[in-house]
Every structure is written in structure tokens, then in C-alpha cells.
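Appendix C: a fully annotated inverse folding record. The material below is reproduced so that readers can follow the format used throughout the book. The structure is listed first as C-alpha cells, followed by the designed sequence.
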């Protein structure tokens, strides 16, 4: 018995000694100059605007990613990732230090990964690869519905890949901790709750994905009300061209403006050369409760100097039907209701 215990202890010590672990510092720096027309000034008149912007085709960020091999196909993992405005040096995501991601968990090569903390939602994880513009902060489906790239506090997330199938589920005890009494309230677990599930499947050159996401209200008065999104998308990758289509239905009891909408998109990515790519896309929101049906068209060109540095130019034209007020950057008040808007941004991105 004594020899058995000594052998077990020695094996455990050796396993710990030779365990592979690492911490990686990484990030993205993205900045450019943007032009917009029909932007309201202080007295509500439409004007042109030229400005410097951060996070145009990818949000500027920095982060730490860690992994430790625990043996038997298990790994301990963590991510701490913060967003920044490169033009001003300030933190974004409400000033949070790690506002983009902050989680810890365990990864199994057989069963998938389970993590706890602050995450991107599953709409982002599962559907981003089906948007021609990859949910870019500017000029993508993100501008029609920002929750497609939302983040959720106090959440547990599972994701597993089995052959060509990836499945995922997420539960949040309170989506936004910055809302007073908006999450994890004693006696009312529905306040700020989120439940989500989805999948992607790849068979050769064809890919398909779908997700369901449900949010509850962030107060005691609205905890029984929900906001639900149903998303389906597909892509066909025929090198050097990829073709994308997508659909999202929103049914909300939490908003009074555009509470039931359909969002449709389609686009093409064409890698003309190893260093140059063109992307074209169209996005349309159909409001089922009014005539507010904005449509946006996007064209983007990207030139890669290296694997880590590229330059880009992106242009967008938004047509606001029925008095809608969608700007090139979303529903941010940057365009007068009913006015169309042209926007373009030229910039550079470096990844490290």
C-alpha cells in the first residue's frame, strides 16, 4: 500500500511538472477617418461630418488569454479582454476594464468547453461567420441590430464541436450588472435573465447556423416581459468566393419602437489575391408595425500588407424608408429621420 501511494504521488508530481501552460497577450488596433453626410447639428440641420474613429472593421482591444494542460484531455482556460477607443485612449463598454470578455473555465477535448463570467452572446459566436462584414462595428448587420454582437454578464456558456457540428448554450443570471437592481435580484431570478442556444454545421463547402436568444426585462416591472430573437443563416465557400444569406426575427415586449422586425441580409466576399479582398453586402430591416424599413448597402476593400497589418476602405449607403432613422453607424442619432445617409471610412488595422 505504501509503495502504491508513493508511486501515485510521484506520477501526480510529474504530471504537474510537465503540464503545458501559457499566457498570451494579444489585441487589435483599428483606427481610421470617416465621412458622413446628413448628420444633424446642434439646431437640427443636416451637415457633413469628417472625424477620426476607432474600431471600424474590428473593435480595438487588448487581452490576456491563458491555458493550462491538466492532462487526460482537460485544460484550464481564461480570457480577460478590454475594449478601447484608439482615437482617445479611453475604455469602451461603459468604461469596464475587461468589458469585452472576462471568463474562466475548463475545456475538454471530448466534451467541449464550459466557462463562467462575461461573454459574447451566442448570436455573435455562432452567426458572425455568416455576415459578409463579420459584424463589423461599422456598416454591417450590427448597425441594424446591435444585440447580434451583444455581451452578457453573470453567464455560464457551453460550446462543443463534434465533427462538423457545433452546439452551444448560454444562461445569464443577469445580463447587465451596471443597471441598478437589474440583475441577480433576491427573490426574482427573471430580472435581467438571458437564455440562448444554437448550432452551426459544416458539410464540405456548405455551412449553416441557427440561434435562439431570449432576454427578460431589467426591472421588477418588466421581468415578466421578454425580447426574443430567432436567427438562421447559411454560407457557401467556393474558393476564392464566399456567398452569405441570413435572417433574424425580433419579437420584443421591452421596446415600443419597432418591436417586431425582420432583418435580412445577403453578400459576397471575393479574395482576388492572397493580399486583397472585396466584400459587398445588403441589409434590410422590415418593421412589421410600421412603414419604417431601412435598407443599407455596403462595399469594402481590404489590402493585407502582412498577416497582422492591413488597410481598408469601406463605404455604405443607407436608405431610410417610411421615416426610419438608421445611420451608417446604427440608430445613434447620426441622421435625421427619413434622410438617407452615405458614409465611408478609410483606415488601418494591426493585430498582435
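Designed amino acids, in order:
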Amino acid at each position: 500500500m505504501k509503495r502504491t501511494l508513493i508511486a501515485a504521488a510521484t506520477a501526480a508530481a510529474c504530471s504537474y511538472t510537465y503540464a503545458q501552460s501559457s499566457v498570451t497577450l494579444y489585441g487589435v488596433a483599428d483606427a481610421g477617418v470617416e465621412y458622413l453626410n446628413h448628420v444633424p447639428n446642434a439646431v437640427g440641420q443636416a451637415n457633413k461630418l469628417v472625424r477620426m474613429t476607432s474600431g471600424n472593421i474590428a473593435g480595438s482591444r487588448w487581452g490576456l488569454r491563458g491555458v493550462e494542460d491538466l492532462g487526460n484531455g482537460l485544460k484550464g482556460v481564461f480570457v480577460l479582454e478590454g475594449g478601447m477607443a484608439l482615437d482617445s485612449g479611453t475604455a469602451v463598454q461603459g468604461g469596464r476594464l475587461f468589458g469585452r470578455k472576462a471568463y474562466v473555465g475548463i475545456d475538454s477535448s471530448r466534451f467541449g468547453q464550459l466557462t463562467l463570467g462575461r461573454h459574447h452572446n451566442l448570436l455573435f459566436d455562432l452567426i458572425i461567420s455568416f455576415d459578409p462584414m463579420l459584424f463589423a462595428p461599422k456598416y454591417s448587420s450590427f448597425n441594424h441590430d446591435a444585440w447580434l454582437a451583444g455581451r452578457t454578464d453573470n453567464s455560464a456558456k457551453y460550446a462543443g464541436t463534434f465533427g462538423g457540428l457545433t452546439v452551444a448554450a448560454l444562461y445569464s443570471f443577469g445580463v447587465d450588472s451596471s443597471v441598478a437592481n437589474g440583475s441577480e435580484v433576491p427573490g426574482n431570478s427573471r430580472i435581467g435573465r438571458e437564455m440562448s442556444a444554437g448550432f452551426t454545421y459544416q458539410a464540405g463547402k456548405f455551412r449553416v447556423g441557427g440561434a435562439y436568444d431570449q432576454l427578460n426585462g431589467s426591472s421588477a416591472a418588466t421581468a415578466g416581459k421578454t425580447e426574443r430573437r430567432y436567427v438562421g443563416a447559411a454560407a457557401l465557400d467556393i474558393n476564392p468566393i464566399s456567398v452569405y444569406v441570413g435572417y433574424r426575427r425580433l419579437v420584443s415586449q421591452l421596446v415600443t419602437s419597432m418591436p417586431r422586425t425582420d432583418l435580412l441580409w445577403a453578400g459576397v466576399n471575393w479574395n482576388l489575391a492572397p493580399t486583397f479582398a472585396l466584400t459587398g453586402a445588403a441589409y434590410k430591416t422590415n418593421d412589421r408595425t410600421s412603414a419604417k424599413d431601412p435598407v443599407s448597402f455596403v462595399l469594402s476593400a481590404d489590402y493585407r500588407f502582412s498577416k497582422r497589418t492591413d488597410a481598408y476602405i469601406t463605404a455604405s449607403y443607407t436608405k431610410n424608408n417610411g421615416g426610419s432613422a438608421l445611420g451608417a453607424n446604427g440608430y445613434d442619432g447620426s441622421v435625421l429621420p427619413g434622410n438617407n445617409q452615405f458614409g465611408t471610412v478609410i483606415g488601418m488595422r494591426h493585430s498582435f
